[in-house]
């Protein structure tokens, strides 16, 4: 029996040794592997076809076949890190809007801002007079030699005398009154400042012949009213009441801002005037969408800074008054243009054909009467 157990143990030991014995690796042969019947009937797939099928698989990006880095077209702007949704071709997109070339501040857009050689005689004529000498008298507005001195100094701030004299010239031009959004009325700095002082209490006793109310009736008979706004000794900018659109349009050479207390005072004073007119039942018709000015949206129409010095804001404001159509500036201008326009403005004011102060070298007498007399009539109380 013991011999039987010994034989069994020897057999088990042999089996264990057999399992732990290292097996020799099979040598690969060039012989083809046998395939199943299913694999035999499956057609061979070309490598190019296989890659095209990978492209169809959702969520899987195929390998790029690009051999070189693509060149960027310098005429286009490339952005990265964003994903744009394909727009409906029937709707206007930003790409459909033509891009307007905007010159830099040191570029000049036109020679019209430059002074002509023969006009230097007028410049020298102005400099010969004492400070208190009145050299400009247009309509009801005057400017002395001292007022004009700001036009000979690029760092000087524009004063009311110069601003109002040029605004008066603009008001007399019929082409200036016609804009894209209708008839425009250009207010002077003097009367724009008066509006800011009009409260409900101060207007309580004003009657239909009051200048404050008759001037406001003039405003509402125009589609657009232009108000030059002044932050004393600091800044000028323009506020346009666009009654055709029912919005307030702000043009500021320093760009947009949300803090405009002077503008709020002007709009509140104007709203007080309108309420007084409504109380007296004096508004028979008007050219505005409505008379609720305090509800009109305020739009900043100069999204970028145009002025790059600390003193030419008044010049920019005058050009805004001249060129704003209600939708855009009819002509673009730059800081360099305003630097040139400063000296040119002195010549324009003194040589103006309806300047009551005659005698400058560039003055040309005329027998034609100035057609614009509306403001002088309104001014009389």
TrEMBL record:
Residues 141-324 form the Ubiquitin-like protease family profile domain. SUPFAM superfamilies: Cysteine proteinases. Residues 8-24, 37-53 have a biased composition (Basic and acidic residues). Residues 26-36 have a biased composition (Polar residues). Signal peptide: none annotated. GO terms for biological process: proteolysis. Keywords: Hydrolase, Protease, Thiol protease. Residues 62-71 have a biased composition (Basic residues). It comes from the Eukaryota. Gene3D superfamilies: Adenoviral Proteinase, Chain A. GO terms for molecular function: cysteine-type peptidase activity. The keyword Protease applies. The keyword Oxidoreductase does not apply. Pfam families: Peptidase_C48. Residues 1-111 are annotated as: Disordered. PROSITE patterns: ULP_PROTEASE. Belongs to the peptidase C48 family. This is Ubiquitin-like protease family profile domain-containing protein. It comes from Urochloa decumbens.
């Amino acid at each position: 029996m013991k011999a039987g157990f010994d034989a069994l143990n020897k057999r088990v030991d042999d089996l264990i040794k057999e399992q732990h014995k290292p097996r020799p690796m099979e040598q690969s042969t060039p012989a083809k592997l046998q395939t199943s019947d299913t694999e035999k009937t499956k057609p061979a797939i070309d490598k190019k076809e296989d890659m095209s099928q990978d492209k169809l698989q959702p969520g899987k990006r195929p390998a790029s076949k690009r051999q070189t880095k693509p060149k960027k077209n310098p005429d286009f702007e490339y952005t990265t890190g964003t994903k744009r949704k394909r727009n409906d071709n029937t709707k206007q997109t930003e790409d459909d809007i033509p891009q307007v070339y905007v010159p830099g501040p040191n570029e000049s857009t036109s020679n019209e801002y430059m002074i002509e050689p023969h006009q230097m005689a007028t410049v020298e004529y102005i400099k010969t007079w004492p400070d208190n000498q009145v050299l400009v008298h247009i309509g009801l507005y005057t400017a002395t030699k001292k007022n004009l001195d700001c036009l000979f100094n690029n760092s000087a701030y524009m004063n009311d005398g110069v601003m109002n004299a040029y605004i008066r010239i603009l008001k007399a031009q019929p082409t200036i009154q016609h804009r894209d959004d209708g008839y425009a009325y250009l207010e002077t700095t003097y009367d724009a400042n008066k509006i800011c002082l009009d409260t409900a209490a101060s207007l309580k006793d004003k009657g239909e012949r009051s200048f404050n109310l008759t001037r406001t009736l003039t405003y509402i008979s125009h589609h657009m009213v232009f108000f030059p706004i002044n932050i004393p000794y600091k800044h000028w900018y323009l506020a346009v009441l666009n009654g055709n659109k029912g919005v307030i349009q702000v043009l500021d050479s320093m760009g947009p801002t949300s803090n405009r207390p002077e503008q709020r005072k002007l709009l509140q004073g104007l709203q007080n005037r309108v309420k007084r007119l409504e109380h007296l039942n004096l508004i028979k018709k008007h050219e505005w969408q409505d008379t609720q000015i305090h509800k009109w949206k305020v739009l900043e129409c100069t999204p970028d800074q145009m002025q790059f010095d600390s003193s030419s804001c008044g010049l920019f404001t005058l050009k805004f008054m001249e060129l704003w159509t209600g939708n855009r500036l009819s002509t673009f201008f730059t800081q360099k243009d305003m630097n040139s326009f400063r000296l040119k403005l002195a010549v324009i004011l003194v040589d103006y054909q309806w300047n009551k102060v005659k005698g400058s070298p560039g003055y040309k007498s005329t027998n034609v009467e100035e057609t614009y007399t509306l403001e002088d009539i309104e001014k009389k109380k």
